[in-house]
């Protein structure tokens, strides 16, 4: 314990043992570092698919549809990070798409920038504009962002319509160059390029442009997958579930949101630019509010919070209207056939109703879904002139989809029989035996530990004086008990120390530093962390992921490292994972690593919270009623854990009503009543203090023994 520890534990990088099957072998490639051969093969298959698709569908119109799917997928992937993972709805991404589109159009037509450069400049410009929009708005929460983004979409549309000097409004910008290939030919004109000899296929500009769009989409998908399956994904998930808990492990929620928003803005801009050069001509009408809704629907239908949702949603929603139009134009029957039409709608409708009622039973579900779609498609096929009511049919199908698939297409596919996710990786190999925190978390050395001091602190909520002129000192290395009746201000004190509340008056000091104006994540970074009286876990995340979040302040691989899955990022992730497992073993809950946090009983959830807090290597840990809701038989284990943590050199402030527990573990006890300190000293001196007994039991007739025998009085 003499020095700050950087772990020396035997940690292996995420590379394979010889026993693993060939496809599960992990590779040391950039961008794929630590991914399996199977994953790399999937990517290669996708690349091959992209290569052959336009050669198979060798038709200009189809190729254009495929280009459209590709660039909307890019936008949807970005929006999914925001809407799905971070849980923040944006109705303004159509505007960011427009920024990209106009930027690239203007750069190429007015400034003569080559298309290849303009595409990426446009993405960057949309990113910067997105960042600037997000800067003031992301401080707000909830629906406010949705409102602001709607405003962004509407204002952008109005500006595009009216600022005709730049945008030409509804008249539009024409003659936008297409990408130039092999010495100056553009998209339409490339007719004679036959790379495979005279008899081989002709490579048209449409084919080449599809390869560009889809290639970029594949790259974006890869990078986004890197982000979302690693630490960044865990962080955005965590922020969605509990902002306050994210802050207490050191995540700056604001910066996290800024990153996610900017990332999605860049991708929306890139998509807009690709759109511009596909069309060759853009008008302001394209960028109405509808565009934003369209992008959002791609994400939601595809399956928010799924890595592959965006491409599924986009593909279906781009192809579906075309299919419907084609189907509708066939006029299979010359005149209406009412019985058949009724039959189709009845089959589709009944199947859909069945689906809504049926939650499980996957084979039946698959059959019913097929019947639903066939019913509606059949109706479209046999109804003459339905093309005129095309939007109605499209809208109905969309509603059916959205109602039937709350988790989107991705969720639906995942639940198909045979595809149900094979329970992935077991969290641990061999179970660990860990009895000490040495080398596991970076707890500061004795010299680095500082005292926590409150100086005449007040915290008032209107007329309520939750803390009323409190001074106290928590000495380093102590287990400091804090007791007091309900409502005496204990939790408020924890909130004031950890930056959740800014005190109305007075100072909170850590060593020489005043903490008053720091934000919770900064205070966490200084080594002060906590647990919550009302447990604040990241509920949907696994126990292991919760603990891995706790290591946040010590991680070095930044955004770019995660995006490119560098060696640093992959090794760090594996190392943190291993240490988290060991930390769980230290608290005897390693076997729960894979469990969803919210599935555990309270007592164990509190243990997970303690593990997460310990992961940050705190110098001071504040436990707010760690025994509340804990099974009485487990109190002994909790005391043992507190002792072990204290032995590792962590200073503890323990708030507790369970008198045996708090008196047993504490060296020093402070008693609060109505926000004021009424007693302080050794556990023994506090227990014999009449004021304390009065505060708790209302009369000095009783003794402290009564309190111990009946903790519910406390
Ligand atoms: P304890 O944790 O000791 O039971 P608290 O610190 O939770 O007590 O509460 C102390 C007092 O402050 C209570 O009267 C409570 O109602 C009040 N209080 C706490 N937080 C707030 C808040 N955010 N707004 C208004 N009053 C609050
Ligand atoms: Mg409390």
How is this structure best summarized?
The protein has 714 residues and is an alpha/beta fold. It contains 27 helices and 10 strands.
Structure description:
The N terminus is likely disordered. The radius of gyration is 31 Å and the shape is elongated. The chain is built from 27 helices and ten strands. It has three domains: 260 residues, no CATH class; 119 residues, no CATH class; 202 residues, P-loop containing nucleotide triphosphate hydrolases (Rossmann fold, 3-Layer(aba) Sandwich). The longest helix has 27 residues. It is α/β, with parallel strands linked by helices and 714 residues long. Helix 1 runs antiparallel to helix 7, helix 4 packs antiparallel against helix 10 and helix 23 runs parallel beside helix 24. It is 53% helix and 8% strand. The structure holds adenosine-5'-diphosphate and magnesium ion (MG). The site of adenosine-5'-diphosphate (ADP) has 11 residues, from strand 2 and helix 17.
Q: Order of strands across the widest beta sheet?
A: 6-7-8-3-9-10
Overall strand count = 10
- Return the domain count: 3
User: What would you call the shape?
Assistant: elongated
Q: Please indicate the percent range of residues in DSSP E strands (runs of 2 or more).
A: 5-15%
Helix content: 40-55%
Structural class: alpha/beta
Low-pLDDT runs: 1-13, 422-428
N- to C-terminal distance = 37 Å
The kinds of small molecule bound in this structure are: adenosine-5'-diphosphate, magnesium ion
Output the number of helix runs.
Answer: 27
Please tell me how large the radius of gyration is: 31 Å
Average predicted local confidence, pLDDT? 84
What about the largest sheet?
6 strands, mixed
């Amino acid at each position: 314990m003499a020095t700050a520890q950087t772990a020396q534990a035997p940690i292996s990088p995420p590379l394979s043992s010889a026993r693993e099957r060939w496809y599960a072998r992990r590779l040391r490639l950039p961008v794929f570092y630590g991914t399996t051969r199977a994953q790399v093969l999937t990517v290669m298959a996708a690349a091959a698919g992209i290569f052959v698709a336009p050669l198979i569908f060798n038709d200009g119109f189809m190729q254009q549809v495929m280009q459209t799917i590709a660039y909307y997928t890019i936008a949807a992937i970005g929006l999914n990070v925001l809407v799905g993972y971070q849980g923040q709805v944006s109705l303004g991404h159509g505007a960011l798409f427009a920024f990209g589109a106009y930027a690239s159009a203007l750069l190429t037509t007015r400034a003569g920038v080559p298309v290849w450069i303009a595409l990426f400049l446009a993405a960057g410009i949309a990113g910067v504009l997105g960042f600037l929009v997000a800067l003031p708005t992301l401080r707000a929460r909830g629906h406010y962002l949705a409102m602001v983004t709607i405003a962004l979409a509407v204002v952008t549309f109005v500006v595009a319509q009216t600022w005709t000097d730049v945008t030409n409004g509804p008249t539009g910008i024409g003659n936008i160059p297409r990408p130039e290939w092999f010495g100056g030919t553009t998209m339409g004109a490339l007719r004679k390029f036959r790379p495979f000899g005279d008899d081989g296929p002709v490579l048209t500009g449409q084919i080449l442009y599809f390869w560009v769009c889809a290639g970029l989409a594949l790259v974006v998908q890869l990078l986004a997958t890197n982000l979302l399956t690693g630490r960044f994904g865990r962080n955005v998930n965590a922020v969605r579930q509990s902002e306050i808990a994210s802050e207490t492990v050191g995540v700056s929620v604001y910066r996290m949101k800024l990153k996610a928003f900017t990332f999605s803005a860049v991708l929306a801009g890139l998509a807009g630019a690709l759109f511009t050069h596909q069309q060759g001509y853009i008008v302001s009408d394209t960028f109405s509010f509808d565009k934003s809704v369209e992008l959002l629907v791609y994400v939601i239908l595809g399956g928010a919070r799924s890595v592959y949702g965006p491409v599924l949603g986009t593909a279906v929603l781009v192809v579906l209207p075309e299919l419907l139009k084609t189907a509708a134009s066939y006029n299979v029957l010359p005149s209406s056939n009412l019985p058949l039409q009724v039959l189709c709608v009845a089959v589709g409708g009944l199947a859909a109703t069945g689906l809504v009622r049926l939650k499980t039973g996957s084979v039946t579900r698959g059959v019913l879904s097929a019947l639903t779609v066939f019913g509606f498609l059949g109706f479209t096929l046999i109804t003459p002139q339905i093309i005129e009511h095309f939007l109605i049919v499209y809208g109905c199908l969309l509603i059916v989809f959205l109602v039937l698939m709350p988790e989107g297409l991705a969720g639906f596919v995942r639940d198909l029989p045979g595809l149900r996710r094979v329970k992935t990786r077991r969290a641990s190999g061999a179970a660990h035996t860990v009895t000490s925190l040495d080398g596991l978390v970076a707890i500061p050395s004795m010299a680095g530990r500082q005292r926590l001091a409150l100086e005449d602190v007040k915290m008032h909520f209107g007329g309520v004086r939750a803390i009323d002129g409190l001074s106290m000192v928590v000495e380093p290395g102590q287990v400091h008990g804090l007791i007091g009746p309900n409502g005496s201000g204990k939790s408020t004190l924890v909130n004031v120390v950890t930056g959740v509340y800014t005190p109305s008056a007075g100072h909170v000091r850590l060593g020489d530093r005043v903490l008053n104006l720091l934000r919770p994540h900064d205070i966490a970074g200084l080594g002060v962390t906590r647990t919550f009286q009302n447990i604040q876990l990241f509920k949907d995340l696994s126990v292991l992921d919760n603990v891995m979040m706790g290591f946040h302040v010590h991680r070095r691989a930044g955004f770019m490292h995660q995006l490119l899955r560098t060696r640093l990022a992959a090794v760090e992730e594996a190392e943190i994972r291993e240490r988290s497992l060991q930390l769980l073993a230290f608290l005897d809950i390693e076997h729960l690593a894979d469990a969803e946090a919210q599935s555990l009983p309270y007592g164990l959830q509190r243990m997970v919270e303690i593990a997460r807090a310990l992961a940050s290597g705190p110098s001071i840990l504040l436990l707010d009623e760690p025994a509340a809701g804990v099974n009485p038989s487990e109190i002994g284990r909790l005391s043992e854990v507190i002792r072990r943590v204290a032995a590792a050199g962590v200073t503890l402030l323990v708030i507790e009503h369970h008198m045996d527990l708090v008196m047993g573990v504490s060296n020093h006890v402070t008693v609060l009543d109505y926000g004021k300190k009424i007693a302080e000293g050794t556990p023994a001196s506090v227990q014999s203090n009449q004021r304390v007994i009065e505060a708790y039991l209302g009369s000095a007739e009783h003794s402290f023994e009564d309190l111990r025998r009946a903790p519910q009085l406390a």
